[in-house]
Design brief:
527 residues; alpha/beta; Rossmann fold; 6-stranded parallel β-sheet; 6-stranded mixed β-sheet; 15 helices; 26 strands; globular
Amino acid sequence: MTARTVMVQGTASSVGKSLVTTALCRLFRRAGLRVAPFKAQNMALNSAVSADGGEIGRAQAVQAEAAGVAPTVDMNPILLKPEGDARSQVVVLGKPIASMGAAEYHARKPELRTVVAGALARLRAAHDVVVIEGAGSPAEVNLKDRDIVNMDVARAADAPVLLVGDIDRGGVFAAFVGTLELLDPPERARVAAFVVNKFRGDVGLLQPGLDFLTGRTGVPVLGVLPFVRGLRIADEDSVSLDDRRSHRLPSDGELGIAVIRLPRIANHDDLEPLEHEAGVAVRWVEDPRGLTDADLVVLPGSKCTADDLAWLRATGLAAALARRAARGDPVLGICGGCQMLGESIHDPLGVESPLGVLEGLGLLPLRTHFAQEKVTARARARIATSSFLGDAGPVRFDGYEIHMGAVEPLAGARPAFEVLERNGAAAAVADGAVSDDGTVVGTLLHGLLENDGVRAALLRNLRHRRGLSAEPGRRIAAREEEYDRLADHVLAHLNWELLCRIAGLETPRPAPVATHLTHPSRRTPAA
């Protein structure tokens, strides 16, 4: 059997395609179907390790989890990880093949189209329905002859298209009509419905506009999705940080956590669990003033460690981190952040820098060696050395590794963690380091703070340092609960019967999930 397909495209980037796709994956799963997500090409620095050990976009891993299936490289066969304004690392079927400029990459499109077709065919052979996500806009006329992610995929999969527009940014009717006008007639015929996203206000006042839209185009409106707040689902890329950049100091009784927003920040979703904790104020900062009075400073992952290390020095943040460590105030470095905290970075092959050897921040006894081969692994680990992240003990937790460099401990180094499993195989590998006083910690493990025990120990220890009472402990929502909350939100505001007719499916309307936790009001992109 070959799976049915439905495709989610958008009038622009960041209109909510990824979350709409996630919601549909969850709803089709709850309707009893075997469902898988698919995105032919993703450009993002938030990535994940698939069940088969390859690297894919974070959004497709999230969508697979919502669908109740293990993520595979077929769900995102091409991942572009920007390294600068004009170059990207190209990851094909989970493995990096080269760093390419735009012209070189476009020249490879014919062979990559074959890769995309094969991945989609394998997914369709194993599932009942595949929910396909596009990228950017299908109306980018300068790129249409090299398209391998929007209408080219819709045509190959014979997929009807749901076109999503963001009404919150304004101009949504012009965006819908303009997108259709720029499509070729066969492409225009594939657009089966509009989805108006991120709406605030009275839908009744919007109805004349919806009637105009359908009358003008002949395309029905599948639904109007209200803006949803505090959704604990990982963002696709760092553009979402633009809404959350803040220099707000914590109020009385709150912990203040400052995350350095590196120019090439990667996997910033590592910190999202902290943003949903009661009594915690997370701020994303770009200069030393943002570190004022922070209970913890986090140096996150980076796609270009050498460039971001130079930026830290140019902005004065490197000196501010050194002063902080000298005072014994907590600093956490994750992946690229861990490498920067070390003594030096050696790059003889010029993977990231032509300089060969770079001086690190010197806050941890570590040395990084860059190599051509990337490490991608799902990991299970334990705390090895006591620090503000918790005490050494039998607690096990899950995470993942995505890095080009191997980190070598120097004399006297104490590991932060011990990796016990990599991709399901037993291991005994020291990870990262802890400073002598336990206040500077570096680790290569992403996903650390998704673990309730580690996160609770971190916040408990930070509160103890400040002399604050223990937080009463409102449990933040698990991801499974959040997928159901998102799915219920979308289900309540779209025409399920029309959706099933568009997708060629005969399946009953899934029942909503009755209980959801209370969520904070952090501004989060809507479904």
